[in-house]
Write a structure and sequence with these properties.
single chain; 95 residues; alpha+beta; two-stranded antiparallel sheet
Length: 95
């Protein structure tokens, strides 16, 4: 499900960047998408993760996630929320 959640987050960030650019896709740059991600607060992933927030000091996004299966074409949680580990310090420093 990480791929679905990542796609949800990126689509939202691109939508925000596009809106901030006045709806002109030619004006959207990578830095605009990055700023939209960095400003993301309490983004709802429809229960797949805890609300997603980013900041200069928080790159984890969600603090928890669920393991899910697909039953009869619908997502079904196998677990309650599990703790997401923090981003390693080296990664926070870009290494």
């Amino acid at each position: 499900m990480a791929g679905i959640v990542n796609a949800m987050i990126m689509v939202h960030a691109v939508e925000v960047a596009l809106q901030n650019a006045g709806g002109d896709p030619k004006k959207v740059k990578g830095t605009d998408v990055f700023e939209a991600l960095q400003g993301m607060q309490n983004f709802n992933t429809r229960g797949l993760t805890t609300p997603v927030s980013y900041s200069p000091n928080e790159r984890r996004g969600a603090n928890g996630y669920k393991i899910v299966t697909i039953k009869n074409g619908k997502l079904s949680a196998v677990t309650d929320f599990l703790d997401a580990p923090p981003v390693p310090e080296q990664e926070m420093k870009g290494k």
